[in-house]
Design brief:
three-stranded antiparallel β-sheet; 304 residues; alpha+beta; 2 domains; single chain
Length: 304
């Protein structure tokens, strides 16, 4: 079924590339029809129903709308429709919305140059990590803040004791250079964890995970937000408790925590692979180039 569907999907997408509104509308209808055909024939709808129940039609509808609105996802659905559906299934497993504007989870199209096709993958977002953490009911506080020049008085790496004197005047504080970021969590049982990363450490992290020779667009556009996200990911990935089900310590909880810690569902890819040809000589020729677009053709980033 998948091979036959792929051929039909290619025709639908090709029709969608025509300039007339009539053909675009027909392409959307074809994608809708073929999506439902694959869901039914391969048993995916049953799995969605098990995970989402009555919300399944709404979730599938949002997935179809997302594909119709995103040319890159259309290509992924054309070349490898199962990867799109399986990515959506992962989001459903975590009970997270797939609207990229919300920042909980992403279905990311990427180009697999080795196999000459576009595929999709599930990426757990910044807010999705927080959501999974809060669902445990075990947290009293989770936070990440930037630290300005002169605010950090001391930090003991062994005991994690940190002393920060924040500048109270916010207007004046905004004018002062950021030198680091501090992440903190406290569980309801009193357990506390603190991590601190300097600006140089964040820059080294970005460079290590960079695709190609140039910084990704999201890092260039909002370095501070990306730094906060990196600190939070390290804090929750190493020390945090994550749960798919509210306040239930199930095997899925452990699997979720392990997935973040090991990078299996790490949203590192969503950021570090967002490199594009800048026209200044950069050439990103990795086998898998991850580029994520929103409805305006811009590379996505987590919403604040």
């Amino acid at each position: 079924m998948a091979n036959n569907s792929t051929g039909l999907i290619q025709n639908a997408v090709q029709n969608g590339n025509n300039k007339t509104m009539a053909n675009n509308t027909q392409a959307a209808r074809n994608i809708n029809m073929l999506m439902n055909s694959i869901l039914d024939s391969d048993g995916y709808r049953k799995r969605f129903n098990e995970l989402l129940g009555k919300r399944t039609p709404q979730f599938v509808s949002s997935l179809i709308s997302m594909i119709n609105a995103n040319e890159q996802l259309q290509k992924a659905f054309c070349d490898s429709p199962v990867t799109v559906i399986q990515s959506a299934l992962k989001a459903a497993t975590y009970d997270l919305p797939i609207d990229s504007g919300l920042g909980f989870a992403y279905i990311v199209p990427f180009r697999d140059n080795k196999n000459a096709r576009t595929e999709a993958q599930f990426i757990l977002g910044y807010k999705g990590m927080i959501q999974l953490a809060l669902r445990t009911g075990a947290y009293k506080t989770i936070n990440v803040v930037d630290v300005r020049q002169g605010e950090l008085k001391s930090f003991n790496r062994l005991t994690e004791e940190i002393e920060i004197e924040f500048i109270e005047d916010e207007e004046e504080r905004e004018k002062i250079e950021i030198v680091g970021w501090c992440g903190y969590l406290k569980l309801t049982n009193g357990t506390e964890k603190t991590i601190y990363m300097t600006k140089k450490q964040i820059e080294a992290h970005e460079l290590k995970h960079r695709k190609g020779d140039y910084m990704g667009k999201t890092w260039r556009k909002d370095f501070n937000s990306m730094a906060e996200k990196t600190v939070l990911r390290k804090l929750l990935g190493k020390w945090g408790l994550l749960s798919i089900d509210y306040q239930q310590a199930t095997p899925a909880t452990i699997a979720a925590a392990d997935a973040i810690a090991t990078g299996k569902f790490d949203d590192e890819n969503e950021d570090d692979n967002e490199n594009e040809n800048t026209g200044d000589g950069s050439d990103n020729t990795d086998e898998k180039e991850v580029v994520t677009y929103d409805e305006n053709g811009e590379i996505i980033e987590d919403a604040e």
